[in-house]
Amino acid sequence: MRFEFANWALIKIPGQPSDYTEGMLKSLLTLADVMPTGYHAARVADVKPGDKVVVIGDGAVGQCAVIAAKMRGASQIVLMSRHEDRQKMALESGATAVVAERGEEGIAKVREILGGGADAALECVGTEAAVDQALGVLHNGGRLGFVGVPHYNNRALGSTFAQNITVAGGAASVTTYDKQILLKAVLDGDINPGRVFTSSYKLEDIDQAYKDMDERKTIKSMIVFD
Predict the structure, then answer these.
(1) What pLDDT digit, counting tens, does each position of 85-138 carry?
(2) What is the pLDDT confidence band of residue 200, given thresholds at 50, 70 and 90?
(3) Extended strands (E) in 93-153
(4) Please, what is the Cα angle at 52 between 63 and 182, to 5 degrees?
(5) How many Cα atoms occupy the beta-carbon half-sphere of 140 within 13 Å?
(6) 128-137 and 103-114 helices cross at what angle (nearest 10)?
(7) CA distance readout (Å), 151 to 39, 80, 125
(8) How far apart are CA 199 and CA 124, in angstroms?
(9) I need a surface site. Which of 1, 67, 109, 220 has the fewest CB within 10 A?
(10) Is residue 6 very low, low, confident or very high in pLDDT (cuts 50, 70, 90)?
């Protein structure tokens, strides 16, 4: 197979694979996609030191968004999650609170925890319900960074007008973030995004790897080549 633009997510790592622990190799692997994507959500939402941040989505990208929010100095990071294993992982990565409720109840709980609305919401799911949650937790003048690939056809932004919400998002510039900040952060041990790989599979078991992610038996599947 010829893939002309395969270098869009390739980053040169110093040394050889044998120079690194398995944990470090996992963290380096996240630099191909999920860590830069989580960081993109935090950057386009302009997360600044002292900000109160809410992360919508507890998958690999959401977990990396928690890491990114902490990197950028957020004072409070609330993860909206219903899954205990993912809640635990996020708390270990820098989340300060977890909210399992959804809809208006979830929005009210987040606002209670933060003593008002959030400065930034990082939407890492891609559903209209997730966008509604993100917009609902923001205070007036808040900022939404969305990186969840949209599973909805259209969502009008008119509802945000009166609140002066800033909305930004899209695909991450992977190699740019890696070269600027993320590779060094991983190599220096400042961040450990590799923990999102909770199961490993051989290439012939790749169907099962996807199935286990779909059924939430694993957060992110890692394919190991012999």
Answers:
(1) 999 999 999 999 999 999 999 999 999 999 999 999 999 999 999 999 999 999
(2) very high
(3) 97-99, 118-123, 138-146
(4) 40
(5) 3
(6) 30
(7) 21, 19, 9
(8) 21
(9) 1
(10) low
Task: Report the amino acid identity of residue 196.
Answer: V
SS3 of residue 142 by DSSP: strand
pTM over 0.70: yes
DSSP 150: P
Encoded tokens for 222: 């890692």
CA distance 133 to 101: 11
31 vs 48: CA distance, rounded Å? 22
Two structure tokens written together for 174:
């992977």
User: Any idea which residue has 């606002």 for tokens?
Assistant: 111
Side chain identity at residue 117, one-letter code: G
DSSP letter (8 states) at residue 122 = E
Tell me the C-alpha distance between 37 and 170, whole Å.
9
Long-range contacts of 96-105 (CB under 8 A, 24+ apart): 102/129, 102/133, 103/133, 104/136
Q: In angstroms, rounded to a whole number, what is the distance separating the alpha carbons of residues 14 and 10?
A: 13
